[in-house]
Fold this sequence. Notes:
single chain; mainly beta; Immunoglobulin-like; 3 domains; seven-stranded mixed β-sheet; globular; binds copper (II) ion
Amino acid sequence: MPLDRRQFFQASAALGASFALPAPLLAAEKGKERRIDLVSSAFTVALDPSGASRSAVWGFNEQLPGPTLRFRRGERVHLAVKNELPQETAVHWHGLRVPNAMDGVPGVTQHPIATGGRFDYRFELRDSGTFWYHPHQASFEQVPRGLYGALIVEEEKPPSVDRDEVWVLSDMKLDNQRQPVEDFGRILDIANDGRIGNQILVNGLVAGSQRTLTIRSGERLRLRLINAASARFFRLAIDGHEARIIAFDGQGVTPHPLPAGGLALGPGMRVDLIIDCMGSPGQSFPLRDLGRPPATPTVLGALTYSSQPALRSKPLASAVTLAPNRIAEPDLAKASDHYIIFQGGMRGSPVIGLVDGKPSRIQEIMAKQGLAWTMNYNAQHEHALMHEPLLHLRTGEHVMLHMINETDFLHPMHLHGHFFRVLAVDGKPTPHREWRDTVIMGPRQSIDVAFVADNPGEWMYHCHILDHAAGGMMGTIVVE
Ligand code: C2O
Ligand code: CU
């Protein structure tokens, strides 16, 4: 192993200590650092609107989802995390480009936060958009128990809308008593589609037509959707409205309508929609998850019109475009090619994986190690036990990353610390060349993305089906 991570943390902690003191003072002088306290703990909540029964969950600040954090681009924040869970944790700020030491990955960027312990995350918000936060320790258990929340960074000049709403989509696997089923980390889930809940939640409450967002006719609505489920894909459609997509994963994209078959939102992914609400007072329109055929659609919630008179009789004509974040543009002419090949899974062809450098048959790896997937022929355990980064990149390197899925499964692949442009699917150029931090790789599909590796550090690169990540689809990319 090229670098001893333990020594590295100590060195960076010492550095942090010597620089930590002046920094907050400076920020305080400018009145710019905003402090938020987050406590992760176990508690109970009512998932049903009736409040008839309470379910045991884990979460932040005794809320499900955790509090929605709203900041503005350019602000400095201090997120003070206290751990009152019965196990170690750490918090990752999904999608935000933060300095590596603030990325919240135990075993890679910090020591885990012990029960009773705390960690102070301090960074500047470089990017506006829709983000979220969640633990990166045993995330296949901690996230589906309820540890997640929205993190919104407003543009310096947000587009003018009448309403800005966040819906955090997730699910839970509940028994007849409405308590979570304690079956995290089963190899059957790891090697298949992941552990999918039997109850969809919208902002921590059971989904359904009773989950309504009350709007007024004529309003322009910005709806931010976050998929915080550990394995479930959503395929979104809205009745009676022409919603336009204005951002993926927080980054502005040429406004365009939802695809006819519904908008696929994989675990970890976000979308911002603009909806000009032109229904009549009293009407109600469902927002549906079309699911994966042959599944029947599920109503997630509804847009319900209040009886107030219309705010305007015609939709606003102005287009909504988001001021772009400053992301370095990859120059394809000088980009270096890198490849990552994915294999494994229950229905996969037999593959050989390297565990700790030793070749093993995938069936044996599953039975003995709880691993089911390989990336570039390596199967690795969660962070702490990882041995070799997948790729080494030079700081400033222009990178063309070819991801080749040789499995029969969908994988939402996520890279920390950077955004990438999605350029091609199976060699075919994408219409919007969108920036993303998480991209869906369909079964047997190849995806080409490009980015400039300009954020130094060791960054996670993993599948956001958290059971897949636990089962080997987790590695790191070093920018040095
Ligand atoms: Cu949303 Cu590595 O995580
Ligand atoms: Cu996966």
